[in-house]
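ok so heres the complex, two chains, lmk if somethin looks off
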Amino acid sequence: MTKKFESTDNYIATDDLALAVNAAITLGRPLLIKGEPGTGKTQLAEEVARSLAAPLYRWHIKSTTKAQQGLYEYDAVSRLRDSQLGDEKVHDIANYIIKGKLWEAFEEEQLSVLLIDEIDKADIEFPNDLLLEIDKMEFHVYETRETIVAKHRPLVIITSNNEKELPDAFLRRCFFHYIKFPDAETMQKIVEVHYPSIKKDLLAAALNAFFAIREVQGIKKKPSTSELLDWLKLLLADEIPADALHADESGSIIPKLHGALLKNEQDVHLFERLVFLNKRKQ
Amino acid sequence: MLIELLFRLRNARIPVSITEYLAMLDGLNQGVANYSIDDFYHFARLCLIKDERHFDRFDKVFGDYVNGLHNLFDEVIGDIPEEWLRMEAERLFSEEEKKEIEALGGWDKIMDTLRERMEEQKGRHQGGSKWIGTGGTSPFGAYGYNPAGVRIGQKSGRQGRAIKVWDKREYKNLDSERELGTRNFKMALRKLRRFAREGAQDQFDLNGTIDATARNAGLLDIKMAAERRNAIKVLLLFDVGGSMDYHVAVSEELFSAARSEFKHLEYYYFHNFVYEKLWKDNRRRHNETVSTDEFIRTYAADYRVIIVGDATMSPYEITAPGGSVEHWNEEAGAVWINRILEKFPHAAWLNPEPAAYWSRVPSVKITHELMQERMYGLTVDGIGKAIDGLKRKH
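and the predicted structre for the whole thing:
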């Protein structure tokens, strides 16, 4: 192994995450990533690819995605059409084999990164259908009778939002890493990477307000890292001074532009009710 | 050595298999995470644990395991030289802290007590945790001073931090004691399937295509159809708290089996008997409730209702207004269950208590009658019978 993955200039990877990625590269095993929404699961693959200068193949999974589509698809319909129109192409079946993302990644001569995004969206049998392909990094094309073997084992990064349980046999072949929500210190680093020119006091005030909102009991959708970054962008664009975020300035703890943080009207109501109660207490 | 970690994990009911263990050894062989306990912790977790719900249990086992290794270290190395401890302490304590130590009777006295305490602790905690002062009451604990901590500090700062990672047990509330033996339940529930085509049309419809192509004078006309899916919809109502605490495990098994089996599954909780309110989250049961009226309005009559509860209570809790043990209910539980059964003709009650006891408990008998004899045991067999009942057309 020559290259190692570390934090880049726009992505902060904790030590354990970097270790997970590097171990997955060394041992050639897929890496399954879970975590709260908005903790940068999908972005991880992009950053790994960028920092290792490896090509990235993205396979976004939907509820209708089939495992076969990642390998290849035989377009029987256009072949039938071509035959009706007397096209010469029709004699070679290989003309109608459409390569999937897995195949494309397998053809890469160097290390590549294959992102299988949101695997839990797919049918419950989907992971089982990919067992052998992920394990041996090869598959058989029935129509042309050839076996495709990966020239260089790609780093497979799989993300999941926990909507479905994944089968044990599949899990056994993966490394598993859970991205936990960053603590205040890591969060500060993340923000600094995204907005290097942000003022210290504004950042401190904003982080305080952000973690306070996350602590509020009963909030349905806790704001995540990506929401914090959006909110900071708004604050910067509006040139809001740091002291406008302080609780006791105006007697209200509703932060400015909180719509970027709270995405659910019930949460906003709950929050406003709490603010109201707080005011009455004072 | 590492084999023991594997078996300890299995004893803690973490599903680890040989595949994962070999993968870990392979990684260690290739030098992915050697020479640092911190890296080893993360790497072992990466290889062996496949679900964040098991992180907490892993942290516990790993903590015990590593502490065991430290005890081993003690036996080999023996006592820590006092001089060394003192030097280390000089470095660690601030001036104020040193003054406080003086106030407590001076350094030597503290060291004496510490040595005594260590002797005592060796006697008492054989093989257990050997951290002195984590209790927080001894003078040593007050300064965060324990021999183990200092000793680790000597080797490298990072290790001291790593110990904290698993001692913090950050994943505590992710651990759900979920039983893995849900397969039998799944098989029983599987019988409750009714396939129907719905959703996106993404499957090739051969018959439709042949038909359309023929009508099209032989020019291809593709027809697609939606995939067949299990169209059964299920509402699960769980009794929680009180006497149901003894049946938590079996209820959880049923719940987890049902969740993976049905695409349309909604669940609600109640306490003892259904009254005017149900809730979805037990922690917020007093604030966030759903009125049973709304529940009846929301779901279509083709939902199958499965109620899980032991139905063991005072008969008044079912038959009389105001009979609830928790609040004043305007209308009796019997009224509410009848309303539910009226809306949802397909219903069954699963009772975790053995069927032999049912006839002896009046409230169970009443419930059985209210359910029109559709109470079944919460066993694989009982679920099978309940499913047969739910499949029947009314």
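quick notes: The longest helix of chain B spans residues 55-77. thats all i got rn
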